[in-house]
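S.,

Sequence below, as promised.
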Amino acid sequence: MDTQRALMITLVLLLSSIAGCFGSEQELEEEFDLNTEERTLLGMGDSVMEWNREDASTIPDVVGEEAGFAVLNNAESGARVIEESYAIPSQFVEHNWDWVIINGGANDVDGYCDEDEGAVLDAIISDDVSQGDMVDLVNKASTFAKHVMLASYYDIPSDSESMVGCEAVMEEMELRYEALANTLPNVHFFDMGDAITPSNREYYDEDLLHPSPDGCVAIGMMMAERILEIENTARQSDSPVTLDPLETVFNGMNYDGNYYYAEAEWVVHDPSEIVEIDGMLMIANTGKAQEDGYNCGLETWYIFPNETSFSPGQCLLSEKPAWVSQSVSSNDGAYWAPGFLDARTMYYTVPVGNAMGNPDSTESCIGMIKATGTAPNLIWTDHGSPILCQPLGEANTDQPEPPALDPATITDDDGRTYLIYGGAHIWMTEVNSTTGEHLTGEDWDNGTSGTYVHLANGPLDPEAEEETWTEAAYIHKQGDFYYLFVNWFRCCGGPDSTYEIYVGRSTTIDGPYVDANGVSMLEGGGTLVMDRTSGYIGPGHPSIFIHGDTQVFTHHFYPDGGDEEEPWTDGIAWAFIQANTLTWSEEGWPVVGETWDPMSYWNTAN
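The prediction came back faster than expected:
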């Protein structure tokens, strides 16, 4: 259909009771203006989505009323996914919809539930969710619509005479629909069973199969709430995050026209903690200078199953999110020191402008991206706005204001999640454990309101040759204590770096953190964990990965011999990640041990 010329759609619904279990006789006519200035929603599916049309109280109607959409509901009673007659895919209209809501599949499997339901379900959606008519439909809808909601069914009362023996195949269909939704960044799964259950029979029509008007309202209102939540909290950026494999980027890098970035020179700097995802181990790390063919804001790296070393994953944020240009205009597109909320939610540093060569720029921010799909080919989408920003950072000489630097998280035993960040001064603030957003949204206030808590400063020795600087904070709970790990001194100088890792501990998450001598980390305290005498120059950005009874301490380091000015000339990585086993002394302090063998993880996992 030519949507540029079609001002109206006239929808004639001829709904036949012989079409299947989800069917009834009805003839209605609807008009819909595709050129409306209102937000638009397309409903698709079978009679569950079409029921109560005569009262304008179908599920899509309720969603439109609650969330503010002009609604075209093309759902038909008796409609099927894989058959040509009453085909749900034929209900789609090519248009730039704000939302498309799709259900279907019950009429396809009804009648086959005791014999060939597996083959029918596979034709709808394969077990790996890569093929099937529903897969094709959802993929098509997602290319036109801003968002697609793929809805599964609800349970029906046990004394219903419909869909007898179909429970198992319907449960499997639901699992596959949810898995399909997780492969696309703008597709969202919705379980109607979250809204109505057989324990409340007023939500069911007399046939004990379809939703009553009250049932449509319950489902529609929950859908609308979910839609508004997605729109208000996801704030997806205008363009998806780059999906380029990182190694492809590496292979295109050159210096003075010559390729130089060989495997021996791959760099990992400011690594995050290790996270488990889809049977793999993943880290993220700082992006590099935007030059020589490199344009990644951040990187991911993986240890693939039964392998023991990190391999390049994905190039992220090759296109700068619009909010970065507004909030930290001097940033050139390289972002620093990412940290995970969970394996699919990553915070990152948009560094302060004066660290990027602009002495007049002081604002820095922490951003967030979220992933959908299956690793290692994840689809990362930016949050669309900063989680928090610091206007002055270290330029604030009157207060201990931190730059918005080096985000890390900890979820406490009570389920509350905290973001730890800063440089020169380490601070903590609470974030939403699910969405990742700053819990209050309030600006930094030097701790006046209690929203931000000051945890640590740098070393205070006035005779030290290094600046009194600290950063790369990370909190780990061990037994009854919270341990705050930090870096002191100078990073980023290759083998000349003087980074060292220190730690303090507290019985409460908000401190005070003290070292082994009882000195507060706010007063320069800190117990040494690693320096270059450990055999690793400039160990930095510590974190802890736990599998089984094993704790793994990760950090970056600078190999001796790496050339700070021209790291591509000597065949040695400028910086890379190291993982060691971690144990605890009788006094309760961390002890870094031997190099960790990832095969110990795979042997357990297998």
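The longest strand covers residues 364-372.

Coffee later?
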